[in-house]
């Protein structure tokens, strides 16, 4: 029941936000009494925190390539680019899946105005991954200042997130409502090409 409540909460909080969703609605969605939320989470705020933690844990643990070890100090530029692109494309592949839809809505709201708890989760679970990528970008693009390399890293992640957050625009431009396997493969290929171009920088 705990998992069902979390998934119901993610979908509803993502679409309408914390204030607009009541615990009665979430409990009814999974056919359980409201007391279940109190029992498992202590209340609405605890459920919201659990929903956020579930999303970040899933991103870290289930998006496999996020856990690929990045190259060490003696790696070639091509090895670094390939490793960074693998992580970016893993995020992109997840964003193309239907499972990412409620997650993206939830996190999209939190990116605008993160709550203290979600900010802590981001620091603990997501930022270490992004800092690792930023270190690779700094090595590949030595002409960039430290802040510039970090900005480029966020932009790389943003390209992957666009596959979900700009799905409507992509669909209109490509003149299709649903992305078939070939379309998804094309989008991931172009994502990788764009990432490689950014990582190659002036030497491309």
**Which radius of gyration do the C-alpha atoms yield?**
19 Å
Total strands: 0
What is the CATH C level class of the largest domain, in words?
Mainly Alpha
What fraction of residues sit in β-strands?
under 5%
Describe the structure.
There is one protein chain. The chain is mainly alpha-helical and 204 residues long. It folds into two domains: 1-49, Arc Repressor Mutant, subunit A, CATH 1.10.10; 63-203, Orthogonal Bundle (Tetracycline Repressor, domain 2). Helix content is 75%, strand content 0%. It contains ten helices and no strands. It has helices spanning 2-16, 23-29, 35-41, 44-62, 77-96, 100-112, 116-140, 146-165, 167-174, 181-200. Helix 5 (77-96) packs antiparallel against helix 7 (116-140). The N and C termini lie far apart (52 Å). The mean pLDDT is 90. One of its GO terms (molecular function) is DNA-binding transcription factor activity. Pfam families: CecR_C (PF09209), TetR_N (PF00440).
Observed structural traits:
204 residues, mainly alpha, Arc Repressor Mutant, subunit A, Tetracycline Repressor, domain 2, 2 domains, 10 helices, 0% strand, globular, HTH_TetR, HTH-type_TetR-like_transc_reg, transcription cis-regulatory region binding, DNA-binding transcription factor activity, Homeodomain-like_sf
């Amino acid at each position: 029941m705990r998992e069902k409540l979390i998934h119901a909460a993610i979908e509803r909080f993502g679409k309408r936000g914390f204030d607009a969703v009541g615990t009665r609605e979430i409990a009814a969605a999974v056919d359980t009494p409201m007391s279940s939320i109190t029992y498992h989470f202590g209340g609405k705020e605890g459920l919201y925190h659990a929903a956020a933690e579930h999303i970040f844990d899933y991103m870290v643990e289930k998006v496999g390539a996020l856990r690929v070890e990045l190259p060490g100090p003696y790696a070639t530029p091509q090895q670094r680019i390939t490793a960074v692109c693998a992580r970016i494309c893993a995020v992109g592949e997840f964003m193309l899946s239907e499972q990412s839809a409620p997650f993206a809505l939830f996190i999209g709201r939190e990116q605008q105005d993160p709550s203290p708890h979600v900010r802590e989760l981001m620091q603990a679970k997501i930022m270490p991954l992004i800092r690792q990528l930023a270190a690779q970008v700094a090595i590949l693009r030595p002409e960039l200042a430290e802040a510039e390399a970090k900005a480029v890293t966020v932009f790389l992640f943003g390209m992957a997130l666009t596959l979900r957050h700009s799905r409507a625009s992509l669909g209109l431009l490509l003149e299709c409502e649903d992305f078939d396997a070939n379309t998804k493969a094309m989008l991931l290929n172009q994502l990788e090409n764009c990432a490689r171009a950014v990582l190659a920088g002036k030497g491309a």
